[in-house]
Structure formats: C-alpha cells, structure tokens
Amino acid sequence: MTATSDRSTDQLPSAVRSLASSLRLGYRADPWLIVVAFATSVAAAVPDALFALGLAAFTDSVIGGDGTAVLMSALALSLLAACGWLLNTAAERVNRRFADRAGIVVESHVARLQSEVVTIEHHERPDFVDRLSLLRDHAPALSELYQQLFAVAGAVLRLGLTVALLMSVHPALGLLGVCAVPTVLVSTWRAGIEKSAEEAGAQHDRLARHLFVVGSTPAAGKELRVAGVRQRIRADRRAAWERRYRPMARARWATAIWQSASYAFFGIAFCVAVGFVAQRGDSPAGQVMLVLAAGSRLSQYVGQSVSQTHFFRTIWLDCARRLAWLEGYARTVEERADAPVPERLRAGISFENVSFTYPGTDRPVLKDVSFTIPAGAVVAVVGENGAGKSTLVKLLCQLYRPTSGRITVEGTDLSRIPAPGWRRRLSGAFQDFVKFEYPLRTSVGLGDLARAELPRAVDEAVTRAGADEVTAVLPRGIDTQLGATWPEGVELSQGQWQRVALARGFMRRSPLLTVLDEPTSAMDAETEHALFERYAEAARASSSSTVGGVTILVSHRFSTVQMADVIVVLDGARLVEHGSHEELVARGGQYAELYGIQAAGYR
User: In the predicted model, is pLDDT for residue 33 greater than 70?
Assistant: First the structure.
C-alpha cells in the first residue's frame, strides 16, 4: 500500500455493481424478510393494474342487463380492491420491519468501514470528505433502498400490465406506453443533473453547517460575542448556503421545464387514444371504460414510476454507489503486511530518504528525510508550522505511508508490519485529542482496553499524568461523568482535558513507541516540562529493561525539547540538522538561533 490511493478509488462505481453490493448486504441483514418484502411489494401491483379490466367487465354487464354478470363482476372488483389493500398493507409492514433491521446493519457497516481503514486519507482529503459527508447524512436512508427498489419493480409491473390491457383493445394503443417513455428518460436525466449539482455544492453545505454549529453552540459563544463577529458568521453562513442552493435551484428549474413538457406530451397522447377508441363504432362501452381507466392509471403509474425512479436515483442508488465506493476504497488500502511486530527495539527506527506528499496535492510535506532513532532514545522534533512535524508522527503511526523512501523498525520496512499490531505497541497523546465524554475512569482506561477495568492501572496513569489534580476538584473524583450535557456531567477546561488525554497515554505498558504531538499546548511551560520528563523517564526505564521503547516529542518550547537525546530540526519539508541540544547549540545553526530567540523572550 502506498501513500496515495489507487486512482480507481477516485470514481464512484457503476450503479449495477453498487446495487448488487447493497442487495447482498440487505440479504445478510435478514434473508427471509427481504424475500417476503420483495414478493409482497411486486404482488401488490397485480390487482391494482387489473382493476381497469374488472371495471370494463362491470360496465359491459350493466349495459347488457345480465344480473349474474353484474354480481360476478362486482365481486371481482371488490376482490381486486381487497387484495390490493391487503398486499399493500402487508408490503408496507414487512418493508418497515426489514428497514429497521437493515438500518442497523447498514449504519454499522458504514461506521466499521470508515474506522477500520488503516490510513486516514479518507478523513483528510477534501473530495473524499465531501463524499463521506453525504454518505453519513444519507446512511439511515440506505435502509429504505430495498423498499424503493421493490416499489420500482412493482411500478414497472403495473406499467407492463396496463400497456398489455390497452393493447388488448387495439395494438395501436401500445403507443401510449411509448409516449410515456420521455417522462421516464427526462426523470432519469433530471436525477443525474440534480445529483451532480448537489455533489458540487457539498463543500459549501459543510461550511454552512460548520458555521451554524459555531454560531449556535456555547463553546464558541463567548468569543463570538466578545469579538463582535456574530453578524459576520451569520452572513458567511448565508453566503455558503446560497453558493450551494443557487446552482441546484437553476438545475431544478431547467429540468422541471423539460419534465413538464414530457408530461404535456403524454397528456395529449392520452386524449388522442381515448378519442380514437370512442369514435370506433364497433367499440363496446367496456372497451372505452377500459381505456379511460387504464389510460388514466397509466398516467398515475408513470407519475409514480418517475417519482420513485427520481428518489431511487438521487438518494438511495447514489448512496449505494458511495457505499460501494467506500467498500472498494477499504479494500485498496487493506493490510498486506507479512512481518511480525518486534517484541523489543535494539537497532531502533530509521527514516531512509522518506518523502511524503498528501494525496490530492503537489507540494511535498517531507522530502528526503533520513535519520535514526536509537532504541530507548527520546527524540524531539522541532520546526516552524508546516515544517512536517505532525506528518512525521502520522507516518510513524502508519496513518499514511511514505510517497517514497521507507521507515524501518529493526531493519524491517514498517509497511510490512500489520498496522493494528504495531499500534497496539504505541501510546501517547496528540494536540487534537478526543474528548471522550465517559466517566473519567473510563475515558482514561480507553488508552489500553486490555487494562481498562483494572482500577490500579487507571489510578497510576492518572497520577503519572498529573490528572490527580483534576480528580481532586471533581464532585465524584475519578468516577465523575465528563461532559456538561450529561446527567451530573462536568465540563473540564482545555488544560484539564489535556491531562486526561495524557493519562490515556500512560495506560499502555512498555510501548515500543510513544508519540507526544504537542498535547500540552494549554499548559504552562513548567508543567509541560515536568510531564515530558516523566515520559522520558518511562522511555529510558523501558530501554534499560526489556523493551527499548522510544519517545517522539513534538513541541514548540525549547526549554522542554532540550531534555531529548536527539533533536530533529525540520524546515521547508527537509531535515536541516539533528543531534543533542549541546551539539546543536555549539553548531550555531538554525536550532541555536531559534533557541536563542525563545530564551531571550523568557529572560
């Protein structure tokens, strides 16, 4: 697997392949219910379509004055009506029950696919994010895919039976069905045009939603009011919404005109058909009634077919295509690793001419980076914003793979080591950490699920991260529910949340790699220094025992990074120098200059 996905994943799969994939998923959800739902949905179309034939028979029997024929045709009409009602009711109930089952399966499937992809390209690449946001929004609707598909099948059967009844009066009346074709073609074309407009406006829709959340949530309320930018946020949200809506409105108006024209064409053809049958002298009243009933129902069935085809194409089938795309994407980045995870580090971790460019961009974030992290070492990575520090950490965590070059662990290419197994030997914390709104004990325990239920393990992690200062002020201590929106929940400050995240990083025993990507930005320099010293001591202790684990520290505070064994300086995507603090200061290069500037600021 390379850093960039296969080009085939850039395009949505075909409708047929996507539909087949979704049907297989639905069949796995409940084989019996999906078969019954299909059978009842299609069967309900038969009595509905044959009602016109019964009405024609009833008309002829009334005009003929045959009392027995009148009774039999009336009974046939009532039987058709009752069967149609019963089958439609059964189909609706069965489809609803199946949709509930399928909804759970589909949403779980979508969530599993997104979470189990070993890289995070699909979370950061803009075109993929747009595609996934639409899939997430419509994922609940995917459970209705099967009901809509069955409804379309029933509509097609109704149309076929109705056209057959019309042709039984005169073969030329089959042309009335041909005249309905433009409405279906225009509907299909309309669905594609409108879906393209929706896809093109997805990023504006995401921006409008983001600004709505920013403007209506407590977290941002203080800053918006103090800065006086509430009106600007509202205006920007309105502008983003209009950038999304206006192209869609233009597309809808244009396609609506064509659809109206196709309906008008069919209406004229229907009037001509009725007149043609009525003016024939040999036509019994029943045939005229058949054409009137079947023809008018044909118009209704065409409308239903057009509406169902439109929604099926724009919502359900398009969601199915996105789901099939996600399944295919997950397969292109699935694990093909064949090397075991090392039990300990001896030779360390090496970067060998590593370059990386984010998918969808042209500018390298890292270029020809080469250095070695000795076993048991604490390595600090410094550099200006955008120098590639966080990207280097992502590569080490196998969240991306190098565009060129390689990273080796004990001489083995990291890409050959299974990502899940490698990550089980990782720990640490990130600047963009997750605020897990569980009880604090659980939120910390998530750092190592195998030990999450061990009170002593959690308590030790809390103490080592200095989070015991947080538990001391909480109403229920370490068992306090986090998050103010939950019953008896408490909201933490940013610094307190960071300590909880750091405690999660202390949960895992003897990791091979600990990554600390600026997780203490809300803390003062003295607190950060003390915390990182604890991590460094833990890393050196593991080196002296049996693991040889290394620690990667990313920080912009030079008072903290000088404790590291090796300092790596990145600038403009390149490694410009590396060595110990004393070596780099003596060299008088970029690190020495930046260190001097920051030290002067503290003095």
Answer: yes
- Give, as one character, the DSSP assignment of residue 493: P
> pLDDT per residue over 249-288, tens digit each?
888 888 888 888 888 888 888 888 877 777 775 557 777 7
Longest dimension (CA), the chain: 117
Q: What is the CATH number of domain 349-425+511-602?
A: 3.40.50.300
CB 522 within 8 A of CB 494: yes
Instruction: Categorize the per-residue pLDDT at 113 as very low, low, confident or very high, splitting at 50, 70 and 90.
Output: confident
Structure tokens at 69: 């024929």
Q: Take residue 561 and report the two structure tokens written for it.
A: 């990074």
Separation between Cα atoms, residue 499 and residue 505, nearest integer Å: 10
Pick from 260, 263, 252, 358: nearest CA to 314: 252
For residues 201 and 361, what is the distance between their CA atoms, to the nearest angstrom? Answer: 21
Q: Please, which pLDDT band fits residue 559 given cuts at 50, 70 and 90? A: confident
Q: What distance in Å separates the CA atoms of residue 582 and residue 533, rounded to the nearest whole number?
A: 18
Is 315 within 8 Å of 22 (Cβ atoms)?
no
- Confidence grade of residue 138 (pLDDT, cut at 50, 70, 90): low
As beta bridge partners, residue 366 has 356
Using a 10 angstrom Cβ sphere, with 0-12 exposed, 13-18 middle and 19 or more buried, the burial of residue 347 is middle
Rounded CA gap, 407 and 490, in Å? Answer: 43
Higher pLDDT, residue 251 or 405: 405
d(C-alpha 51, C-alpha 40), whole Å:
18
Confidence tier at 405 by pLDDT (50, 70, 90): very high
Q: What is the dihedral of CA 559, 564, 568, 569, to 10 degrees?
A: 10
Cα 462-465-467 angle, rounded to 5 deg = 55
* Nearest-angstrom CA–CA distance, 379 and 565: 6
Region 313-321: mean pLDDT is 67
* Run of H or E residues at 212: helix 202-216
On whether the CB atoms of residues 584 and 569 are closer than 8 A, the answer is yes
Fold agreement between 9-206+239-331 and 349-425+511-602:
no
**CATH code for the part of the protein at 9-206+239-331:** 1.20.1560.10
Q: Which residues contact 75 (CB under 8 A, 6 or more apart)?
A: none
What letters, b where the CB count within 10 A reaches 16 and e where it falls short, cover 555-583? bebbebbbbbbbbbbbbebbbebbbebee
Q: Which of 549, 495, 525 is nearest to 599 (CA)?
A: 525
Q: What is the DSSP letter of 312?
A: I
Q: Is 481 helix (H, G, I), strand (E, B) or coil?
A: strand
What is the share, in percent, of the chain residues with pLDDT greater than 70? Answer: 86
Chain length of the chain: 603
- Residue 269's identity, in one-letter code, is A
Domain ranges, ordered by start, for the chain:
9-206+239-331, 349-425+511-602, 438-499
Burial class (CB in 10 A: 0-12, 13-18, 19+), 223: exposed
The partner residues of 107 in beta bridges, in order of sequence, read: none
- List residues bridging with 575 in a β-sheet: 570
Q: What is the DSSP string of 372-396?
A: EE-TT-EEEEE-STTSSHHHHHHHH
